[in-house]
Design goal:
Structural class: alpha+beta
Largest sheet: 5 strands, antiparallel
Radius of gyration: 22 Å
Number of strands: 5
CATH architecture of the largest domain: 2-Layer Sandwich
CATH topology of the largest domain: Ribosomal Protein S8, Chain: A, domain 1
Strand content: 15-25%
């Protein structure tokens, strides 16, 4: 069975969920500090009107970090003005929002380097250094 989930922004003027959501974010930030417990809130699973989404984004604001990731559509990760609170938005190739999350953590999982990617990078840098060293050695030999 193949089910497709479609999440839409509420057409209502207000759902009354912004203040409770902000309290949830505040509690999650407190838990992160006290117990190193990370939290992810899927905004597409919460009833929020378009104006409430805008109100939430305005309240959270922008901090010092913004990352743009291009992979199967764009993803934008923005640190809010509250350190440890991040807004992550996923777009498809048609620039439609496919997912929107608030992460309460030191660093969102999408930004963290993956161990298997780091192993590949280590192998690549070793090869690249060797190639550069070989080129330098060959260039020096040709100058003699």
């Amino acid at each position: 069975m193949n089910e497709e989930l479609i999440f839409i922004t509420s057409n209502a003027d207000t759902t009354g969920n912004v203040i409770p959501l902000l309290h949830q974010i505040r509690h999650a930030l407190s838990q992160l500090l006290a117990q190193q417990e990370e939290t992810t809130i899927d905004l597409r699973r919460l009833p929020l009107s378009a104006s409430e989404e805008s109100q939430l984004e305005t309240f959270l604001g922008h901090g010092e970090v913004k990352a743009d990731i291009q992979a199967l559509g764009d993803t934008v990760v923005i640190e809010s003005r509250y350190t440890g609170v991040w807004l992550e938005t996923h777009y498809n190739e048609e620039a439609e929002i496919m997912g929107k999350y608030v992460h309460i953590c030191d660093c969102p999982p999408l930004i963290k380097s993956q161990p298997e990617d780091m192993v590949l990078s280590l192998n690549n840098i070793v090869s690249d250094i060797q190639a550069m060293s070989d080129t330098s050695t060959n260039d020096a030999a040709e100058e003699d």
